[in-house]
Automatic annotation (TrEMBL):
Record key words, sorted: GTPase activation, Metal-binding, Zinc, Zinc-finger
GO MF annotations in UniProt: GTPase activator activity; phosphatidylinositol-3,4,5-trisphosphate binding; zinc ion binding
Protein name per the record: ArfGAP with RhoGAP domain, ankyrin repeat and PH domain 1
Organism of derivation: Oncorhynchus tshawytscha
Residues covered by the Rho-GAP domain: 925-1098
GO cellular component terms listed in the entry, alphabetical order: cytoplasm
Gene name in the database record: NRP2
Length: 1408
């Protein structure tokens, strides 16, 4: 870019582009000159505030063309080959016909593009006339002409001084040769279709032209002192005309008006530049001449057609009549190559591809038309010839000066052929074909500032103007949508004023639609205070003005007061969506590509029903809402006012003040203009009354993907139950299937056009990929689950076709935010409803895919994909009554619900199978979070708790049947097995652990690495060798070996109690872990060395290991081995004569303590005597019956000084059992008076009162609601963590004496009062029912023991029954004896081995 070009101001450049409204935008962005604007991009222009795509394109094209002038992408012209100009043909006077008078050369009519007054001319025409007339040339002027055969490739010779002596005055320039009326509008470069190619021949006058009367000499401009600072360089002259015009447009007016000196050598080129450099017009081009003419049709008929013809700076147009607005033909003046007289009253207008023949009513009128046309077009053409002939001819065809936003063929109803249509800027041009478009000769142009576009049919649409309706028909529905969008953008560009929009968009969140997120929304709901895009605005209008008042940011200028703009800037879409869209599930959220139906449903749910809003704390209390509104309008918090209004507050409520009777007047009185502005737009809004309507069920939206696929598949009849049986070949039918536009259709054959059935993508809730041969004949099958509770089974022989179908169908119903699931080799994929965290009331929608033993999910509250390892879950259960699948991870519980029963059953079966053990290897087992098989973890934990002091642990065999049953239970679902000290024996558990390792598929050390472990290395290298081998083990094997060796290390540390030293453990576990016969002691030696060097091999922290051993020691002491706890228990009442001092072991239950007290007092238990142990709190005035399986020792430790244990009859137990037996549903709900104990800070006083609340007690939680119709609980407690006591303190003044006290038993604080809640019932029966429901939920229905007598007999027997009734293996023999015994033992570890043993114990242990 030259220095002169770079110094052009942005204002002058934008004026030349008709975009001067953006000058403040560029000025604010720091752009002052054209040079500083180089390098701008689409995004940068949009960022600084240029929102319309057409305007951005126009600016970028101008910048690119200006840059192209300096950096042309063409091969350089050789300097050595200078073109030789062809000699001009000069016609001398003596060669002409002597009889014919020499014609006086007629001066060109040159048109000024600004009124004369703007140029401050020294003189004006003595006869001002708005009609343009030809002028007489100055006698002293120099005229240039070229031979008729000169071309663009042959530039004319420059005039020599001898042939053309200088004169005192030059030819008047184009900008000074025409005088306009003061009423004439200024002219500007035409916004026209493409210009014609460079002219190949000069424009010549016909010899039959009538002589013209000499007009008055034209006025000359006064001398100007500003020289031409940006002359045309030779490179500029080498560019096509359109490029040159673009360059000239970028020059300021002051640079293009020459001084008196330069005017002496002015040329047609400089004259042309002066015209093009004038400021742009704001309105249409002024008409130079118009009138009635007869036009000969193109076929050359003898009959002429009468046409109304108009000539302006841009076009020559002709119409059917003078009332028509849209022409029959438009001919750009730049495309006219010649105008000649052809006879009486006739003249021709010649273009590059066609000649138009006109006939006037008289010769005088014909001469006027010819004169005006010739004088107007000659200047532009000669200027074009000078420019294009100075360089070799370019093959580039000049394009349209306006960049088309949309172009192509459209069928116009009423015509037989299609028209080539172009949308450019704020106009629509119609051409006969593409060739006419390239030449610029069109039919008509439509100004879109008076247009409106309307969809009429699948492929048709109407462009409506006040003068005519244009009905277009596109090739397809997709093309129709593109045309409609382009024309609507043209209308917006014609009517737009971006001042308000730029101010609103200054808030970043307003730059995206509040509903769908589309960029640069241009509409707003002024009462809802949200900024929305055009498509969402259409759906807002459908809600009606009582709900949403839609206004344009660019066209409705009057409504946008400064206060309203400030409201939108203060709130912003982001803050507003925290209220309007606080609970939008991902499946219902909109995207910029969402269809109209989904937009309508979402916007109605969001604003009409308030489905996703954030509830105000006062919601439902009309009086409180109105009071809060009256208070809040006096401050500046507009968002709080909006929340109150749209949660039910009455905008027209009474304030109770005579001078300010309404909230609006109250806001004005306190000078809260923004509050008043918001309230004024909501005075007649009835939206808040609709919020109390019933919330409709959610409809999940899945964005459509442009996926197409077709082919043959084999299909069975759809079913309404799970497909479990194998299908025969005859049950499959071959069908032609097609996937298109989100619809999956199947046909009888590929020849039929009517489908047998169709599944929409929105109807598909799940797709399941079946394992080979699951359904019989076809190996590769998949199932589709629809929301109408039907299953569709499809199959194929080709695995590639099967894979492609599954991938294509899945793409149609999986939303874009969950497309990451498509890359997985899933077995089942679909949408499910779920609850988690604190949101347990309203389910949300997530997208899930089951891959092996992992569940991949895209949840609503997470952006990234989550992976749930099903085999690592702490719990996986199904609540059949609620049809809920419960997944419990560490620190998180996920409740999954199926949208349909059939779909939910399939997910449950698949996830339970995936979460279970899939084989014998360690990696296929259910695992803990540390990758240890659950069976190993449970067995080690139980033995650590109950068996470390058992003599001969791991060497004694358990009962074969019980061991087999335990192994089967762990194999079926290890997660559900709970090992309990009264129900399972230590030896049974230890043998279960050994059997698991012996029967595992690859063994703990793996088959491949076992030999390396058994190869004994040198003593100095043992530790390093074991560490190396350990690092090579699989992840699960490594974690399991570490956990087992840690456990065995702890066992041998207490060898003085269990007699299992390091050597004995190695003998037992060596053959077991290596799955050998036990004859070779190498396996035992490896195990022995791993245990001995445990801290070195596994790099264990000594401090952590010491802490673990201390915990085990504490467990042993707590279990009674180091002394029992002595406690005082009372019988029936607390007094000295009834107290009993009892030794309480750690395993004693409440039932055992009760039996022992009754046995001591020799009390006979009769039928229906429900003796139980009670926890009594005198301070709290409460009591609680202990459950018969509840451990007593932890209760004793938690008792305060004012609490004690009491054994007495449970008088209500019979009624409780009868009530529970008759109860069908385990849950309970109802109204209860509630009080929470709260302490006033700093005063030490308690406060609170009883209020009616609605409670729901279910298997998982206790939820409290403010009222029955509330949908969000105020409080929620986990039932398992609550301790329920009978009674309430009298000082709380309960309404009745039938109450329950709830204490959170999972938390420990210094002041338990802060964890207490009180429920007060109206009757004793009601209290008993609530208490019974708590008991049955907390203890899984086991409220009272089935056989109380057996419990009493069990406690009467001696307690030492650890060794069972089996023979022991010798523990203290020699090493050889131990090896032999181990060999026999490992051959069948569960059989009793006949060896020398101590005599059997004299009793048999009875199980509870």
């Amino acid at each position: 870019m030259s220095e002169a070009e770079g110094c052009v101001s942005v204002w002058e450049w934008l004026c030349a582009l008709h975009l001067d409204q953006y000058f403040p935008v560029f000025q604010d962005a720091g752009f002052g000159t054209l040079l500083e604007c180089q390098g701008l991009t689409q995004d940068q222009l949009e960022t600084i505030g240029i929102k319309l795509p057409g305007h951005r394109k126009r600016i970028l094209v101008s910048l690119q063309k200006t840059h192209h002038h300096t950096h042309p992408e063409r091969e350089p012209v050789s300097r050595g080959e200078r073109p030789v100009p062809k000699e001009r043909s000069v016609f001398r006077e003596e060669e002409r016909d002597g009889e014919r008078p020499r014609p006086v050369p007629k001066e060109r009519t040159k048109y000024r593009s600004v009124p004369v007054e703007t140029l401050d001319c020294g003189q004006t025409s003595p006869h001002p006339n708005p009609t343009f007339c030809p002028t007489t040339p100055n006698p002293n002027s120099t005229s240039y002409s070229t031979a008729p055969h000169s071309t663009a490739q042959d530039p004319p010779l420059p005039p020599s001084p001898s042939q053309h002596p200088k004169r005192p005055h030059t030819t008047p320039s184009l900008s000074s040769s025409l005088t306009l009326s003061p009423l004439s509008a200024p002219l500007s470069p035409p916004l026209s279709p493409p210009l014609s190619p460079p002219l190949s021949a000069p424009l010549t006058s016909s010899p039959f032209s009538a002589p013209l009367s000499p007009p008055l000499p034209p006025p000359l401009p006064p001398p100007l002192s500003a020289p031409l600072s940006a002359p045309l360089s030779p490179h500029h002259l080498s560019q096509p005309l359109s490029h040159l015009l673009s360059h000239l447009l970028s020059q300021p007016l002051s640079h293009l008006i020459t001084s008196p000196t330069s005017s002496l050598t002015s040329s047609p080129t400089s004259s042309l530049s002066r015209v093009l450099a004038q400021p742009p017009r704001d309105g249409p081009s002024p008409v130079l001449k118009m009138g009635w003419l007869d036009k000969n049709p193109p076929q050359g008929s003898l009959y002429y057609q009468r046409r109304w013809v108009k000539l302006d700076v841009d076009y020559l147009r002709y119409f059917d009549n003078d009332k028509e607005v849209y022409s029959k033909r438009i001919i750009p003046t730049a495309a006219i190559t010649g105008v000649t007289n052809v006879g009486e009253q006739k003249f021709e207008v010649v273009t590059t591809n066609r000649t138009f023949l006109f006939r006037a009513e008289s010769d005088f009128e014909r001469n006027e038309w010819v004169s005006v046309l010739q004088n107007f077009t000659r200047g532009c053409q000669e200027g074009s010839r000078v420019i294009t002939s100075s360089v070799p001819h370019s093959s580039m065809t000049p394009g349209s000066p306006l960049t088309p936003d949309q172009q192509g063929y459209l069928e116009l109803r009423g015509l037989r052929s299609k028209l080539y249509t172009v949308v450019s800027g704020d106009k629509v041009f119609l051409y006969k074909n593409m060739e006419d478009y390239r030449l610029g000769i069109g039919i008509t142009s439509i100004d879109m500032n008076v247009g409106n576009v309307k969809d009429t049919d699948r492929r048709s649409f109407d462009l409506t103007t006040p003068y005519r309706i244009f009905s277009f028909l596109a090739d397809s529905e997709q093309h129709k949508d593109q045309w409609v969008e382009a024309m609507r953008e043209a209308i917006g560009e014609a009517l737009s004023n971006s001042e308000v929009a730029n101010q609103i968009w200054a808030e970043p969140s307003n730059g995206c639609c509040a509903d769908c997120g589309a960029a640069k929304p241009e509409w707003a709901a002024i009462n809802l205070c949200v900024v929305v895009c055009k498509r969402c605005a259409g759906e807002h209008r459908g809600l009606g003005p009582s709900i949403s008042k839609v206004r344009s940011l660019k066209m409705d200028r009057r409504v946008w007061t400064e206060e309203l703009i400030q409201v939108f800037l203060l709130l912003g879409n982001e803050r507003l969506n925290r209220f309007w869209a606080a609970n939008v599930p991902p499946s219902e959220a909109l995207s910029p590509t969402s269809c109209s139906e989904d937009r309508r449903r979402f916007i109605s749910s969001k604003y009409r029903q308030g489905k996703y809003r954030k509830y105000h704390p006062l919601y439902g209390n009309q009086e409180e809402l109105n009071n809060a509104l009256c208070i809040n309008v006096q401050c500046s918090d507009v968002l709080e006012t909006l929340c109150l209004v749209f949660c039910g507050a009455d905008v027209n409520c009474s304030t109770g003040q005579a001078d300010c009777p309404s909230p609006l007047s109250l806001a004005l009185a306190h000078n809260q203009k923004l509050q008043a502005q918001f309230l004024s737009h909501n005075l007649n809004t009835g939206i808040y009354m609709l919020y109390f309507s019933v919330i409709m069920s959610p409809q999940h939206y899945s964005p459509q993907h442009p996926v197409t696929h077709n082919g043959f598949l084999f299909k069975t009849a759809s079913m309404a139950r799970p497909i479990t049986e194998r299908k025969a070949r005859e049950e499959f039918s071959r069908r032609w299937c097609m996937l298109n536009d989100g619809n999956f259709s199947y046909y009888e054959s590929d020849k039929t056009s009517t489908p047998n059935g169709t599944l929409k993508s929105t109807e598909i809730v799940c797709l399941a990929v079946n394992t080979p041969e699951k359904h019989g004949y076809y190996d590769h099958t998949f199932e589709l689950y629809s929301d109408s509770e039907r299953i569709y089974l499809f199959g194929t022989d080709d695995p590639d076709s099967h894979r492609e179908w599954v991938k294509s169908i899945t793409k149609t119903f999986i939303p874009s935010n969950a497309e990451g699931l498509l890359r997985l080799a899933f077995e089942r994929i679909g949408r499910l409803r779920y609850k988690d965290g604190l949101n347990l009331q309203s389910p949300r929608v997530g997208w899930f895919a089951l891959v092996g033993s992992s569940l991949h999910a895209y949840l609503e509250d997470s952006v990234e994909e989550e992976e749930i390892h099903l085999r690592k879950l702490q719990e996986l259960s199904i609540q059949q009554e609620n049809e809920v699948l419960v997944l419990v991870e560490r620190g998180r519980t996920l409740y999954i619900e199926g949208e349909r029963k059939l779909d939910f059953q399939g997910w449950c079966v698949s996830m339970q199978r995936a979460a279970g053990s899939a084989g014998d290897s360690l990696s296929q087992q259910q695992l803990t979070e540390t990758d240890i098989p659950v069976i190993v973890d449970r067995c080690i934990d139980y033995i650590t708790q109950c068996g470390l002091t058992s003599e001969g642990i791991y060497r004694k065999s358990g009962v074969n049947s019980r061991v087999a049953a335990l192994c089967e239970a762990f194999r079926r679902d290890a997660r559900s097995v709970r090992l309990k000290e009264g129900e399972h024996q230590v030896d049974d558990v230890s043998n279960t652990l050994k059997r698991f390792f012996r029967e595992s598929g690859e063994g703990l050390f793996t088959i491949q690495a076992a030999s390396a472990w058994l190869s004994t290395p040198e003593e100095s290298r043992k530790i390093c060798q074991y560490q190396l081998l350990l690092s090579q083990l699989p992840r699960v094997n490594k974690a399991t070996l570490r956990a087992l060796v840690n456990h065995l290390y702890c066992v041998q540390r207490f060898a003085e109690l269990n007699q299992m030293n390091l050597h004995n453990l190695a003998i037992v576990f060596g053959p077991t872990l290596f799955q050998s016969d036990g004859k070779d002691y190498t396996a035992g030696l490896v195990v022995e060395e791993l245990i001995e060097h445990y801290t070195d091999v596994f790099e264990v922290d000594e401090l952590q290991l010491k802490r673990q051993l201390d915990e085990i020691t504490a467990i042993i002491k707590a279990s009674g081995s180091a002394g029992d706890f002595i406690c005082t228990v009372y019988l029936e009442e607390k007094k000295e004569t009834t107290e009993q001092h009892v030794k309480i072991p750690g395993s004693m239950t409440a039932a055992e303590l009760t039996c022992e007290i009754l046995d001591r007092r020799k009390i006979q238990v009769r039928e229906k005597d429900y003796w139980s142990c009670w926890e009594i709190s005198q301070k709290e005035e409460t009591e609680r019956p202990l459950h018969h399986l509840e451990r007593v020792l932890p209760i004793i430790h938690s008792l305060g000084t004012d609490s004690h244990l009491l054994v007495k009859k449970h008088l209500a137990m019979e009624a409780i059992r009868i009530y529970l037996a008759s109860k069908v549903d385990v849950s309970k709900h109802g109204m209860v008076k509630f009080r929470e104990e709260r302490s006033i800070l700093g005063l030490g006083l308690n406060t609170g009162s009883f209020h009616d609340r609605y409670f729901i007690l279910s298997t998982a939680s206790l939820r409290m609601y403010k009222e029955v119709r509330s949908n969000r609980p105020e409080r929620e407690w986990q039932v398992k963590n609550l301790r329920v006591y009978l009674g309430i303190k009298k000082k709380l003044r309960p309404p009745t004496c039938w109450g329950l006290t709830l204490i959170n038993g999972s938390e420990k604080q210094e002041k338990p009062e802060r964890q207490q809640w009180y429920l007060c019932c109206d009757t004793q029966t009601e209290m008993r029912e609530w208490f019974s429901t708590f008991l049955t939920i907390q203890y899984d229905g086991n409220v009272w023991p089935a056989d109380a007598v057996q419990t009493r007999v069990t406690r009467a027997l001696p307690a030492d029954t650890r060794h069972g009734n089996v023979a022991l293996i010798p523990l203290r023999g020699s090493e050889n004896e131990m090896r032999n015994s181990v060999a026999a033992f490992t051959a069948d570890p569960l059989q009793n081995i006949p060896v020398t043993t101590p005599p059997p114990l004299p009793h048999t242990h009875l199980c509870l």
